[in-house]
Write a structure and sequence with these properties.
- The structure is a single chain.
- The chain is 25% helix and 20% strand.
- With 285 residues, the protein is an alpha+beta fold.
- The strands form three sheets. A five-stranded antiparallel beta sheet has the order 1-6-8-7-2.
- The termini are far apart.
């Protein structure tokens, strides 16, 4: 399979497209990956595994391969920003980091640091910046176990209780123990949709504003999943279809541009060490 002869490659990446990668994969992008690769993995047996990056797979890489070779994939699910591959013995947990993507078949090429040969096809982990991770554990990985509730599953009542914290709203949304899977893009977009300033105090929000934020987060994430997530570059998906959620960004990546609601200027600041886009007219503390 891993011959030097170039083959046609079908890319299933953090955006479900051939050429683009997100700065950091978030819930919609990871969900897109999971839905894309699941039919190719479930029920398949791992015949061979090879790992070549001390950053993506720190520790004993040969031991990691021994844990999974000969195992059968029982399910592929998402938890927060993590991809969980349940085997008939243990879990393979992957995080895409900043530039990670999964490839189903094709030329391994450069920057492939995880190679899984299946009894029907193959799976490649491609990560130019090597900020992603591949790990095996007997049970659910500890980092996954510490995650907060899923945004699309949490009830309004639980959301109201959990939000009663002395924290700035943007920082709280980035806290994966508060909600699992929301990152920079969808925090900015959700706060804008709810009219909440990223520096607003979570503990002082009224019930009405909390409910508006709850509705915004769920609606934006669901819509982003429908559109295959966001990308910072133009692209088509594996079937050549255009669209996707980045064309609907209202504030993220639009510093200095006109606000779609008030026609003021979108601004950018730093919150929790992350670039944060917002409209100072539309978003109130």
């Amino acid at each position: 399979f891993f011959s030097s002869r170039r083959r046609h490659t079908r890319y299933i990446s953090v955006t479900g497209v051939q050429t683009c990668a997100l700065p950091i994969s978030e819930l919609p992008e990871v969900e897109t990956v999971v839905r894309s690769v699941r039919p190719h993995l479930v029920g398949k047996k791992i015949l061979h595994a090879e790992f070549t990056s001390p950053h993506v797979t720190p520790g004993d890489r040969k031991a990691l391969a021994r844990h999974i070779v000969g195992r059968t994939v029982e399910s592929v699910t998402r938890r927060g920003k993590f991809i969980q591959v349940a085997l008939n013995d243990g879990y393979l947990t992957m995080h895409l980091g900043m530039t990670g993507k999964l490839l189903i078949t094709g030329d391994p090429g450069q920057h492939v640091y995880g190679r899984f040969t299946l009894d029907d096809g193959a799976l490649l982990f491609h990560d130019p910046r090597q900020f992603g991770s591949i790990e095996w554990s007997r049970g659910v990985h500890p980092r996954v176990a510490r995650l907060g509730p899923e945004p699309l599953e949490i009830s309004l009542e639980e959301f109201r209780e959990r939000i009663k914290r002395k924290a700035r709203m943007k920082a709280l949304l980035l806290n994966q123990t508060f909600l699992a899977g929301v990152g920079n893009i969808y925090a900015d977009e959700s706060l804008f949709a709810a009219g909440i300033h990223p520096l607003a105090s979570a503990a002082t929000l009224s019930k009405a504003r909390v409910e508006k934020l709850y509705t915004a987060i769920r609606g934006i994430l669901a819509h982003a999943i429908e559109l295959g997530g966001s990308s910072i570059s133009d692209y088509v998906d594996a079937e050549g279809q255009k669209g996707w959620f980045q064309v609907e960004h209202r504030v993220y990546g639009r510093e200095g541009e006109e606000c779609a609601q008030c026609h003021g200027a979108v601004q950018k600041t730093l919150v929790a060490q992350r670039g944060t886009h917002f409209c100072p007219r539309c978003q109130k503390r």
